[in-house]
Amino acid sequence: MDSSDPYSVDPADIEPIGATIAVAFTGAAIGLVGAAVSFVAVDLGVALVGVGVVVALSSPLAYVRMKRLRGE
């Protein structure tokens, strides 16, 4: 990392498993927000839960994609 920011992350530093975890965590966070919103606005909450599930289930695809990009 040549950046002056000690907390910056170079894309080459992210391992395929890290990408999988990041995508799954993002999907889970969206789903939890959707569950909380569903108490106020049912349609929006259900839509967010659905999007969260789709994002979380796409984490295996992210893993395969990252491995292909890295040539493994």
Structure notes:
- Helices cover about 70% and strands about 0% of the residues.
- With about 70 residues, it is mostly helical.
- The protein has one domain.
- The longest helix has 22 residues, at about 15-35.
- It is elongated.
- The two termini are about 20 Å apart.
- Keywords: Membrane, Transmembrane, Transmembrane helix.
- This is Major facilitator superfamily (MFS) profile domain-containing protein.
Structural class: mainly alpha
Please tell me the total number of domains: 1
How does the major sheet shape up?
none
Order of helices and strands: HHH
Q: Identify the overall geometry.
A: elongated
Low-confidence parts, pLDDT < 50 over ≥5 residues?
Answer: none
Count of individual beta strands: 0
Rg, alpha carbons: 16 Å
Helix content: 55-70%
Explain the layout of strands and helices.
Blueprint lengths: L15 H22 L4 H16 L1 H12 L2
Helix pairs in contact: 1-2, 1-3
Organism: Halorubrum distributum
Keywords: Membrane, Transmembrane, Transmembrane helix
Protein name: Major facilitator superfamily (MFS) profile domain-containing protein
Keywords:
72 residues; mainly alpha; 0% strand
Summarize the structure.
The chain is mainly alpha-helical. It has helices at 16-37, 42-57, 59-70. The longest helix has 22 residues, at 16-37.
